[in-house]
Write a structure and sequence with these properties.
heterodimer; A: mainly alpha; B: 305 residues; 8 helices; globular
Chain lengths: 88, 305
């Protein structure tokens, strides 16, 4: 079964920032819309926590600059899907 | 966050109003936040001069300077043979990746002479990347495991070493390896471009692009005020012709101690390559992603007859 990368990313974001507790954040994240990740104002430690959650869930090495270079949810999901596809 | 260049960068590096960010504490906080064992990285950052301040820093730096001076005669003696062996692929026809075929094996052998054990660190080694801000958690774990193994090897090889000297050997590898790999890569790239002006050292060829400093008091760096605690990025690699060439090795109390060693290396490499009359062309190159040191992870060179 194909892994739902968007669900993994949203789950990791919620784990690290509690994003789904904020209705304005939860709505676009859970309805397939794009979302500006800078709105979460993650500091460097939170970004590392987010990376750890993603690396564990996706079994993938991820660098912090990959996250920096993808300021939107859709962009990050597409980037991770491409990396996972390249691994197969 | 402020970025400064040229004379202002030099002023910041020399100023007593600025010091290094507290790297060990930053890593300790990361370890605690993630619940991941990064203890060997924290230990390494506490052991190397760039992770220390005050009297602890002065003592470690003095031991490192003594150690380099003690080891230097043996290294100078070994250099011609190491250069002849490791740079041989640049002197016979073929296509090579300069990084994996020449630079990394050369630096590994030279650092092994200095440190006293056969390091055997390959191109993918992470031991010099303790200052990386871009590395994710999985690679930080790998770096931690490498540092655990390196420290154990040094402890086994030199059980009589006092703690200061053990830290010095570790510092040689962590601070010396990627900086020399980067400096050699940049300088060889200049050497290999058409019309290149030889294997010379200048600011534009440094492997250290940016150095971080943190204001320890409210101060002024010449271009504007800096609040206590603020991080200033001192850009060294900006090609400013007026910049003191000494800035290639940094400035102030944390200036690089490997200056003489680097000079020895470049002199022997330059002489060796100049004596071999062959065509060499750099056909492709790629800088390694990462922010601690500017290092090539690929330099494809075609060597003609």
């Amino acid at each position: 079964m194909t892994k739902d990368i968007r669900a993994s990313v949203v789950g990791a974001l919620d784990k690290c920032t509690g994003a789904l507790n904020v209705p304005d954040h939860a709505r676009p994240m859970l309805t397939g819309q794009d979302f500006d990740l800078t709105r979460l104002e993650m500091d460097s430690l939170t970004v590392m926590e987010f990376i750890l959650a993603l690396e564990t869930d996706l079994d993938l090495e991820i660098d912090a600059d990959e996250i920096d270079q993808q300021p939107t949810l859709n962009g990050l999901v597409a980037h991770l899907e491409a990396r996972l596809a390249a691994r197969v | 966050m402020t970025t400064v260049t040229g004379k202002t960068a030099q002023r910041v590096l020399k100023s007593a109003d600025f010091d290094l960010p507290p790297y060990p504490a930053i890593y300790q906080a990361l370890q605690e936040k993630l619940g991941v064992d990064l203890g060997a990285v924290v230990h390494t950052l506490r052991s190397i001069p760039l992770g220390q301040t005050g009297a602890e820093h002065a003592a470690q730096r003095a031991d490192m300077a003594r150690f380099i001076a003690e080891q230097r005669p043996a290294a100078i003696k070994a250099l011609p043979e190491i250069v002849a062996t490791c740079f041989a692929p640049m002197c016979r026809p073929g296509t090579i990746d300069l990084v994996t075929a020449v630079i990394v094996p050369f630096v590994d052998r030279l650092m092994s002479v200095y440190v006293g054990i056969d390091l055997g660190l390959g191109p993918d080694s992470l031991v010099s990347q303790v200052f990386s801000r871009k590395m994710g958690v999985a690679r930080r774990r790998k770096m931690n495991a490498e540092l655990v193994a390196l420290k154990a090897r040094l402890d086994r090889a030199f059980p009589q070493d006092p703690a200061l000297r053990r830290a010095t050997r570790l510092s040689m590898v962590v601070l010396g390896r990627d900086t020399l790999i980067g400096a050699l890569g940049h300088s060889l790239r200049t050497f290999l471009v058409p019309g290149g002006h030889g294997l010379t050292m200048n600011v534009a060829q440094s492997s250290v692009q940016v150095v971080h400093r943190q204001a320890i008091v409210n101060t002024h760096h010449g271009e504007g005020p800096v609040a206590s605690g603020e991080i200033v990025y001192c850009q060294l690699q900006n090609g400013d012709p007026d910049m003191d060439r000494a800035l290639f090795f940094g400035a102030g109390v944390h200036a690089c101690l490997g200056r003489a060693m680097t000079g020895d290396v470049f002199q022997v490499v330059e002489q060796h390559l100049a004596a071999q009359i062959v065509d060499r062309a750099l056909v492709a190159w790629n800088l390694r992603a990462g922010d601690s040191f500017s290092v090539y992870d690929e330099m494809i060179v075609k060597v003609g007859p």
